[in-house]
Amino acid sequence: MNIRINDTVQIITGKQRGSKGVVEKIIPQEGRIVVGGLNLVKKHRKAQGNRPAGRIEMSAPIDASNVMVVCPHCSMKTRIGYRVEGENKVRFCKQCKKEIK
């Protein structure tokens, strides 16, 4: 999977197409990611101890194939490439050819 935590991504399919957000969690076994503030669902929570009952909004996982990484240099959604520089393997933007940290 080319996506990492704290990458800025843009949704390319579905109701929220065009929306941007930051990756909070990655689930590689399922090929899904959680993007903060996007794909919100309401969850009903039971009261436990001091925590009150209620409905909370949380970000649900989205399939990794439905998002693209946004390059921090050129601010465009882009595919990710890999190249070896010295002994390190680094990711780079296929649009502007600059390294993505």
Features:
SH3 type barrels, 11 strands, mainly beta, 50% strand, six-stranded antiparallel beta sheet
> In percent, how helical is the residue content?
under 10%
Q: Report the structural category.
A: mainly beta
Strand order across the biggest sheet? Answer: 6-3-2-1-7-8
Question: How many separate domains make up the residues?
Answer: 1
User: Could you state the oligomeric state of the chains shown?
Assistant: single chain
Q: What separation lies between the terminal Cα atoms?
A: 15 Å
Envelope shape: elongated
| Beta-strand proportion | over 45%
Task: Count up the helices.
Answer: 0
Kindly provide the radius of gyration, computed on alpha-carbon positions and rounded to a whole number of angstroms.
Answer: 17 Å
**CATH level 1 name:** Mainly Beta
Can you tell me the CATH architecture? Roll
What is the CATH topology? SH3 type barrels
The strand count comes to 11
Query: Which spans have pLDDT < 50 for at least 5 consecutive residues?
Result: none
Q: What is the makeup of the main sheet?
A: 6 strands, antiparallel
Summed over residues and divided by their number, the pLDDT gives a mean of 94
The ordered string of helix (H) and strand (E) elements is EEEEEEEEEEE
What does this 3D model show about the protein?
- With 101 residues, this protein is mainly beta.
- It has a single domain, classed as SH3 type barrels.
- The protein has no helices and 11 strands.
- It has strands at 8-11, 20-27, 32-35, 40-45, 54-59, 62-63, 67-70, 77-78, 80-85, 88-93, 99-100.
- It has a 6-stranded antiparallel β-sheet, with no helix packed on it. Strands 9-10-11 form a 3-stranded antiparallel β-sheet, with no helix packed on it. A two-stranded antiparallel sheet has the order 4-5.
- The chain is elongated.
- The two termini are 15 Å apart.
